[in-house]
Amino acid sequence: MNLDFSDEQKALKDQIRRFLEDKCQPAVVRGILEGPEPYDRDLYAGLAELGFLGAAIPEEYGGVGLSYLELCIFAEELGRVVAPVPVASSIYLTAEFLLQAGSDAQKKAWLPKLAAGEAIGAFAFAEGQGRMSAKKIRAQVKGGKLSGVKSPVMDGDAADIAVVAALSEAGKVSLYLVDMKGAGVKRETLNTIDPSLNQSKVTFDGAPAELLGEEGDGWYIAEQVMDRAAILMAFEQVGGADAALEMGRDYALERMAFGRPIGSFQAIKHMLADMYVSATLARSNCYYAAWALSSSAAELPIAAATARVSATQAYQHCAKNNIQVHGGMGFTWDFDCHLFYRRSNALALALGSLSTWESLLIERMRGSNTADAA
Questions:
Q1: Which tens digit of pLDDT belongs to each residue from 147-195?
Q2: Cα 329 to Cα 27: distance, rounded to the nearest angstrom
Q3: CATH superfamily ID and name for 7-85+104-113
Q4: Is the pLDDT of residue 82 over 80?
Q5: Contact, 26 vs 334, CB < 8 A?
């Protein structure tokens, strides 16, 4: 088992990094934080033009036809620059739902648009606080019309189409495609710690809904797709953790106090060392999860939960300690530390909280041990 990327993949990584470092400076992120737009449209169009959005989408549906490993590389680089684009909602989730459960007609209708950046997707499953489960879903479809409230919905403000988990007329959890610009859809922007990762409350009132996959398979499919998305999101978190670590390290080498760089003081050394350990551990878990994702291994559920937990902890740890290394100035708007702190906390809640994924990891490991014992 080779848990490293090939030379070609590393070259792709360098290409993506150069593009994002040029097109996604901190000023771009700040522009979304301070402005009315839900995401940076120019950056998103550039990613589509270079084929990054369609990396793991088959060529027959307008994609590039690469593997999930390339998509993991792409995700990590997005995380490094705190990119304000709806890639997670559109590519990790919506495109994957279509690939896993969509009919050929649904795939042909939406995957080329998602790959080209011409349409934005969203996944609407949460209904309030706490760990989401099939039993908590109240949204329902009757006569092909969807009614219910979903909140929060990541990138709900910008979405053209949404995959919605709702009860069928028979009371079974199913998935539905909904035109977010059609009748019966009302959106309300939520105030969050990171406005560059848009969250919305979406109210459906008789919105036309098209079944995605088989009736009653909704939660099973959702769990599969969320595991896959969790791995990709973990790579974003690892990218952000590494960038926060590097920012703290560089500042510690430049900032002088008492005639010497603050990085020479033991307290700062220990803080940076702890950041490095947490980021490296998370990267190790993410690489294993990337292997499981690319090979559809049986270990994928456990690998996804492990990567998600460790990457969430690492990003929050590194983002917080980066502010501490910068001292009092690290808390100010003028420094970019808060961009990583905001995103680390926003991603920690996406697809379910840290405690949710910790519980999932424990449950899955127990299940695995029981199966092995049997």
A1: 999 999 999 999 999 999 999 999 999 999 999 999 999 999 999 999 9
A2: 18
A3: Acyl-CoA dehydrogenase/oxidase, N-terminal domain (1.10.540.10)
A4: yes
A5: no
Nearest Cα to Cα of residue 230 among 302, 127, 320: 302
Distance of alpha carbon 270 from alpha carbon 239, whole angstroms: 21
Kind and range of the H or E run holding 232: helix 218-254
302: its two tokens: 């456990």
| Gap between the Cα atoms of 307 and 158, Å rounded | 28
Burial of 323 (0-12, 13-18, 19+ CB in 10 A): buried
CB-count burial class (<10 Å; 0-12, 13-18, 19+) for 18: exposed
H/E run at residue 111: helix 104-115
- Determine the number of helices (DSSP H) and then strands (DSSP E) in the chain: 12, 9
> Computed over its alpha carbons, how large is the radius of gyration of the chain?
21
The whole-model pTM stands at 0.96
